[in-house]
C-alpha cells in the first residue's frame, strides 16, 4: 500500500500467487474509520487451471467486487466490520455457490492476515 499522503486514497498490488498480481484500489478512504477496496484481476492473477472456469475470480461467472472495512469505536477499544460483495453469474453446477463462498472467506482471511501482520510489525 503506498498512499501519497495521509489523506490520499491508497492502492496496492499483491502477489499472492507466483506470477499472479491482484490490484486493490481504495475508492473510499476515511483514515482511522473506513476503507472501501475494489479489485482488479487479470488472467495472470491465478495460475492456469487453478480453478474451474465457472468459479475463476474475475471471470464471467464469478467475481469479487469490493470489500468494506469499517472501524467502530467501542468502550473497550474498537470493532472491525468487514463486508465483501461478490457476484456469481451462473445457475449451472450445484457446487458453484458453495465454492464461491469458500473462496470469498479464504480471500478475506488472507487479506486480514496480511493487514494484521503489517500492523503488528510496526509495534
User: How much β-strand is present in the residues?
Assistant: 35-45%
pLDDT under 50 segments (min length 5)?
1-7
Strand order of the largest sheet: 1-2-3-4-5
Provide a count of the helices: 1
Helix and strand content put the structural class at alpha+beta
Could you tell me the number of beta strands? 5
Describe the sheet with the most strands: 5 strands, antiparallel
From the N-terminal CA to the C-terminal CA, the straight-line distance is 18 Å
Order of helices and strands: EEEEEH
Gyration radius, rounded? 16 Å
Structure notes:
21% of the residues lie in helices and 41% in strands. The model is unreliable at 1-7 (pLDDT under 50). The chain has 123 residues and is an alpha+beta fold. The longest helix has 26 residues, at 96-121.
Short descriptors:
41% strand, 5 strands, five-stranded antiparallel beta sheet, single chain, 123 residues, alpha+beta
Give the arrangement of secondary structure elements:
Elements: E1 11-17, E2 20-30, E3 34-40, E4 62-74, E5 77-88, H1 96-121
Antiparallel strand pairs: 1-2, 2-3, 3-4, 4-5
Can you give me a brief rundown of this structure?
With 123 residues, the chain is of the alpha+beta class. The chain has one helix and five strands. The protein is 21% helix and 41% strand.
Amino acid at each position: 500500500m503506498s498512499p501519497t499522503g495521509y489523506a490520499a486514497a491508497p492502492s496496492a498490488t499483491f502477489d499472492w500467487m507466483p506470477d499472479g498480481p491482484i490490484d486493490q484500489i481504495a475508492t473510499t478512504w476515511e483514515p482511522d474509520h473506513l476503507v472501501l477496496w475494489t479489485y482488479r484481476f487479470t488472467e495472470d492473477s491465478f495460475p492456469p487451471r487453478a480453478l474451474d472456469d465457472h468459479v475463476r475470480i474475475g471471470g464471467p461467472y464469478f467475481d469479487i467486487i469490493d470489500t468494506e472495512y469499517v472501524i467502530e469505536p467501542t468502550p473497550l477499544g474498537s470493532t472491525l466490520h468487514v463486508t465483501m460483495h461478490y457476484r456469481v453469474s451462473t445457475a449451472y453446477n450445484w457446487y458453484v455457490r458453495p465454492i464461491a463462498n469458500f473462496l470469498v472467506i479464504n480471500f478475506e482471511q488472507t487479506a486480514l492476515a496480511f493487514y494484521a501482520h503489517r500492523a503488528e510489525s510496526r509495534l
